[in-house]
Description:
Number of helices: 3
Radius of gyration: 18 Å
Structural class: alpha+beta
Low-confidence stretches: none
Mean pLDDT: 85
Strand order of the largest sheet: 2-3-4-5-6
Shape: globular
Number of strands: 7
Largest sheet: 5 strands, antiparallel
Helix content: 10-25%
Amino acid sequence: MPGRGSTTCTLTAPPAPGANATARLFTDPGDLGIVPPAVVIGLLTAAGLDADAVIEQKDTTIAGEHATCVHVEAVDNAPASAFDACVTTLGVLGSFSGTVNGSAVDMTMTRYADTVMLSAFSPPAGATVVDRRTGK
């Protein structure tokens, strides 16, 4: 058993093909302080389908990337009735601000790279790795 203050990385089996992994991991923005892109897509869809929703659009730049932003108000039957969201031309969620399911969220991308550093997927030095994948 790892000691107090140590880091443990747990390997689990990947989700089944077609499963919404984001929804499985995300229950409330208060849990993580972020809103996954899949949730924002749902909010934007709800706003687009609500004839009474008020939607204002503008263009901006976030982390050096061009983005289209919307300010949305008066959405019925959605986890957020009002919010601001920006999506870059590359399809990356650049920012989100609003209250979702009662939790306030305010997040903005501060930098963007079109490649991922290999170290991003390596456990921290000295971490204990627990493998819970089936058959491993």
